[in-house]
Amino acid sequence: MQFLPLLGLPLKSETLIDLFELWDLEVVYSYDRLYENQPDQYDACWSEGGASFVFDESQILKTIFLFVQGDDDHSPCDLSDSDIPRFDRIDQATSFGRQSGAQVSRGQVDILGKLRDWVRLDWPNHSVHFQYQQDQLTVVTVLRRESRV
C-alpha cells in the first residue's frame, strides 16, 4: 500500500472513493458539538488493514494512523509492502532520518502512566512519527505538512 500519495487528496477523489469502496469503509463526520471552537473532521477506520484516515474541515486527507501492533479497533498494519519504512528500534528510525535529510525530533511522553518514546522525521511535504512502547513500535503516524512558500 502506498500511503504517501494519498496525503492531501480530497475525500471525494476517485482514488480514495475507489479504495474506501473496495475496503467497505464508512466516513464519520465529527463536528464541534461542545462549542469548543474545534474544526470539523472526517474519519475513516480501516480495521482489517490496521489504519485510520483523518480529513480536515475542507475534506483533505491530513493524517494516516498505522497501527503496527494493532489495538481494540484495528488489526496490525503490515508495512512490508508500503512506502512507509518500519523501524523496530528507535535508533534505526533516527539514523534513517538523518541519512535521508529529514529533520529529526525525539522525545518521550507519559500517557496514562505508560511511557512512550517517539521519533518524528520531517520532510518538506510530510512527516512520519514513530511511537514506541516498551521498545516496540506501536503506531506510525503519517502527516501532511503545509507547503512553505
Summarize this entry quickly:
The chain is built from two helices and eight strands; from the N terminus they run H-E-E-E-E-H-E-E-E-E. The protein is mostly beta strands.
Q: What attributes characterize this protein structure?
A:
149 residues; mainly beta; 13% helix; 38% strand
What is the residue-averaged pLDDT?
A: 93
Number of contiguous helices: 2
The major sheet is characterized as: 8 strands, antiparallel
Strand content: 35-45%
Structural class: mainly beta
Name the poorly predicted regions: none
Distance between the termini: 30 Å
Residue share in helix: 10-25%
Number of strands: 8
List the helices and strands and how they pair.
Layout: H1 14-22, E1 27-30, E2 41-46, E3 51-55, E4 61-67, H2 90-99, E5 103-111, E6 114-122, E7 126-133, E8 136-144
Antiparallel strand pairs: 1-2, 2-3, 3-4, 4-8, 5-6, 6-7, 7-8
Descriptive notes:
The protein has two helices and eight strands. The protein is mainly beta and 149 residues long. The protein has one domain. 13% of the residues lie in helices and 38% in strands.
